Amino acid sequence: MIRTQIQITEAQAHKLRSLARDREASVASLVREAIDRFLRDEPSLSWEDRKRRAIEAVGSFHGPPDLAERHDEYFVASYLGEDAEQRDDPC
After folding, report:
1. So what's the pLDDT on residue 15?
2. Per the domain annotation, does 29 fall within a domain?
3. Is residue 58 part of a domain?
4. Does residue 26 sit within a domain?
5. Distance separating alpha carbons of residues 32 and 38, to the nearest angstrom
6. Same-domain status, 78 and 59
7. Segments forming the whole domain that contains residue 56
8. Could you tell me if 37 and 19 lie in one domain?
9. pLDDT, tens only, 7-22
10. Per-residue pLDDT tens for 27-79?
């Protein structure tokens, strides 16, 4: 097994400890069981499904009309907390 650390809320920890006590199991075993259930139930998307979802997302996000040409300038302005559309000097 691989040892790992996760962060959970206090409420999650309390419920997990309570459930572990009720089942006479360890918290770690419950977490492993939950991960196994998630991985079993999570449908893995095929290449075609991923491609379809990507195509469906096209046009869903809006930005400046010149973003493709000025992406570096917008990135730097965002990093500096500025408004790239207001800048006179290109990066």
Report:
1. 97
2. yes
3. yes
4. yes
5. 10
6. yes
7. 49-85
8. yes
9. 999 999 999 999 999 9
10. 999 999 999 998 887 777 788 888 998 899 988 888 888 988 999 998 898 88
Question: Is the predicted pLDDT of residue 88 greater than 70, yes or no?
Answer: no
Number of domains in the chain: 2
What per-residue confidence (pLDDT) applies to 29? Answer: 97
Q: Is residue 4 part of a domain?
A: no
Do the Cβ atoms of 84 and 73 come closer than 8 Å? yes
HEC readout, 69-90: HHHHHHHHHHHHCCCHHHCCCC
Element (H, E) at 60: none
The DSSP element (H or E) to which 32 belongs, if any, is helix 27-41
Does 80 lie in the same domain as 53? Answer: yes
Tell me if 29 sits within 8 A of 16, measured CB to CB.
Answer: no
Residue 6 · residue 17 · CB < 8 Å: no
